[in-house]
Specification:
- The complex is a heterodimer.
- Helices cover 33% and strands 29% of the residues of chain A.
- In chain A, strand 1 and strand 2 form a beta hairpin.
- A six-stranded mixed sheet of chain A has the order 6-7-8-4-9-10, with helices on both faces. In chain A, strands 1, 2, 3 and 5 form a four-stranded antiparallel sheet that branches.
- By secondary structure, chain A is an alpha/beta fold.
- Chain B is mainly alpha-helical.
- Chain B is built from twelve helices and six strands.
- The chains are: A alpha/beta, B mainly alpha.
- At the A-B interface, strand 6 and helix 3 of A face helix 1 and helix 5 of B.
């Protein structure tokens, strides 16, 4: 096979968009998710996280742009679906069927299914296999669903807010299971997980995609993001973007101005500014804040009614 | 996919089987009893010359009368029940529970998923509806022989092969509306209304009578059995329930239908002697004494004036009945079966479109 056509990315989207009537749920989304990465997909409510994941697993059709997932275009064909594990937000399962029957279902609906793996994982977690899943706790249900998604032996796992409804303990257990699965896959599994809970994402993710206002704001390695984003504090003044940095957020007190910037050159240094490192949470909040300011500005100008 | 379809829907199939068994437990003993009683009456009536009364006298008791009416009437609703409880939830529940997102992201195309589901449910429908219809057809043979009323809506709709086609259509319609609305309750309501309208009202009353060109039968206006004292004519389709009446009109000798609002002037009875007028809209002929003591038939329709039927008759007017004769019964069953199976293609096609083209 021609090496050049094989992308290093598990997911590449270009200008991907989804419109519901006149409303764009996702607009102009261009991201690259490297193979083997564990990506956090973050953004405020309505930013299009669920929409993006549904487009990638072909539950929705794109209205604009294109997506390339594991070197294929999204489709409803078994060949496309067989390589992707997907966990929808509400963790849907057949409430009256038990975990064992769900595993049997997977065996009948997938060619490359590992029933043993799923059974073993759930046994280790002491989840009753013969109780209808509707009668399991939220944490147990999430674990069963994750077990089903992994039993498919996917190359890409898409998780839509899998821990949002779980209590802290169940959340930690779920993330542990996920981390274990990533380790076991030995770089063969790419994960994209959306969540509001930034601290959780930091624990397992090495890559971040920030969506805000339905447009991509940032898509890069977390390590790189931490290096390239700095907080600059200095004497109060109205700062503007320079060739050295892009201002993501600026705030003023009576005497001081604080900027969260993305450096174009990580070696940048300026004695006018006191420079400080930021954590991933600050970066995410800055991008979300920026998108809200833009929205407010547009609204104030009467651009949106 | 077969495994999942069977696992998901086996319970409803068993419930239907239980209902079938309950009806069979009631109908097999009563059906045998009716048939033997009828055969016995036929065998013995020759001795006492009461054969003409057999049909009038058998099974007139309260218990039998109730069963003989309630059972066929309840069978009228079998297609509707199947449409509501098998058809509507099939996809609507997947959408409301979100399980479509689980199953559509396994390694099976939506097309195959839907096809297998449809095959199972429609096959189940054919089996269950077929078993109910066969039971009903067998059970009704005594009633059919005595009352010769197979063309009556209650009996036509519940016997033979047509009920199977109604059920297939009803289930298909329920599936499509469930997929369209994605909410069980809304789809249930609309499916119920549409099925009652189509299966029980529109087709039997407005479409079925016109499958074939009706046969015409003319008789004297005065020889109408509805007029007291007129003798029953065995050729008269209106008194013979084995036929399907399409229309009844009063026509002139040139086959022009009578305009009851504007009848021939000489036949208008301004003040029927000895008779206090005819209620407006009264469509039956009424025997009224004339001044000289001979009975005169008077009728008034469509709010028109009272008209003397004796007078119309002398002008050459006759009563024309258009009807479908009893020997066309199986033709009509076949035509109606084909009609509903063709109709079922519409909701099934729509379901494919909804599942394959719309977002989850």
């Amino acid at each position: 096979m021609n090496q050049q056509t094989i992308s290093k990315n598990a997911i590449e989207t270009k200008g991907l968009g989804k419109r519901y009537r006149s409303f764009w749920a996702l607009k102009d989304c261009s991201i690259n998710v490297p193979k083997g990465s564990v990506s956090a997909l973050v953004g405020p409510n309505g930013a299009g996280k669920t929409t993006l994941l549904k487009l990638l697993v072909s539950l929705s059709r794109a209205s604009a742009g294109s997506a390339n997932v594991l070197n294929k275009s999204p489709s409803q064909s078994p060949e496309y679906l067989s390589e992707i594990g997907y966990l929808a937000q509400e963790i849907p399962m057949y409430a009256r069927l038990n975990a064992k029957e769900h595993i049997a279902m997977g065996l009948h609906l997938n060619d490359n299914w590992d029933s043993e793996l799923a059974t073993k994982r759930l046994n280790e977690l002491a989840i009753p296999l013969d109780r209808p899943v509707g009668k399991l706790s939220g944490g147990q249900r999430a674990q069963v669903a994750l077990g089903l998604a992994l039993a498919k032996k996917p190359k890409l796992l898409l998780l839509d807010e899998p821990v949002a409804a779980l209590d802290p303990l169940a959340r930690i257990d779920f993330l542990k299971s996920l981390a274990q699965a990533v380790t076991d896959a030995d770089g063969e599994l790419t994960v994209v997980m959306s969540s509001h809970l930034l601290a959780d994402l930091e624990r397992v993710c090495d890559h971040i995609v920030i969506l805000a206002s339905g447009e991509t704001q940032l898509c890069e390695d977390i390590e790189t993001a931490l290096k390239s984003h700095k907080l600059l504090v200095g004497v109060r003044k109205e700062a503007v973007d320079s060739d050295k940095y892009t201002i993501i957020q600026q705030s003023h007190t009576a005497r001081e101005t604080t900027l969260l910037v993305r450096l174009n050159d990580t070696k940048y240094h300026d004695s006018h500014w006191h420079m400080r490192d930021v954590d991933i949470e600050e970066i995410v909040l800055a991008y979300m804040g920026q998108s809200r300011e833009q929205a407010d500005t547009i609204a104030a100008k009467g651009g949106v009614r | 996919m077969n495994w999942l379809a069977w696992r998901q829907h086996r319970k409803q199939f068993m419930v239907a089987g239980i209902f079938l068994a309950l009806f069979a437990a009631l109908m097999i003993p009563t059906g045998l009893h009716y048939w033997h009683t009828y055969q016995h009456a036929l065998a013995t009536c020759g001795n006492t010359n009461t054969c003409s009364q057999v049909s009038g006298e058998l099974f007139q008791g309260n218990g039998d009368g109730l069963i003989l009416h309630l059972v066929p009437v309840s069978f009228l609703f079998i297609p509707i029940v199947l449409g509501l409880f098998w058809g509507v939830p099939l996809l609507a529940r997947e959408y409301t529970d979100g399980t479509n997102k689980l199953v559509w992201t396994q390694s099976v195309s939506r097309k195959r998923w839907l096809t297998v589901k449809l095959i199972w449910v429609i096959l189940g429908t054919v089996i269950i509806a077929g078993a109910f219809a066969a039971l009903m057809t067998w059970w009704s043979k005594t009633n059919n022989a005595i009352n010769l009323n197979r063309f009556h809506e209650i009996f036509f709709n519940t016997q033979g092969i047509a009920p199977v086609a109604y059920s297939v259509f009803a289930v298909s319609l329920g599936i499509a509306l469930g997929a369209w609305f994605r909410r069980t309750m809304v789809a249930l309501g609309i499916t119920l209304v549409l099925l009652i309208a189509i299966v029980l009202v529109v087709v039997p009353n407005f479409i079925r009578p016109h499958y074939e060109t009706p046969v015409s039968y003319k008789m004297s206006l005065l020889n109408n059995s509805k007029i007291n004292g007129a003798p029953t004519n065995s050729n008269d389709p209106t008194t013979n329930g084995a036929t399907l009446i399409v229309s009844q009109t009063t026509v002139s000798s040139q086959n022009q239908p009578l305009d009851w609002a504007n009848p021939p002037k000489q036949c208008i009875v301004t003040s029927p002697p000895g008779f206090g007028g005819i209620p407006s809209g009264h469509s039956k002929a009424v025997a009224a004494p004339t001044g000289n003591g001979t009975p005169e038939a008077i009728d008034s329709q469509n709010g028109g004036p009272a008209v003397s039927l004796n007078c119309l008759s002398s002008l050459g007017y006759q009563q024309e009945t258009q009807y479908q004769p009893s020997y066309r019964y199986w033709d009509f069953q076949r035509i109606e079966t084909a009609l509903y199976l063709i109709l079922a293609v519409i909701p099934i096609g729509a379901t494919y479109w909804l599942v394959l083209r719309r977002d989850a």
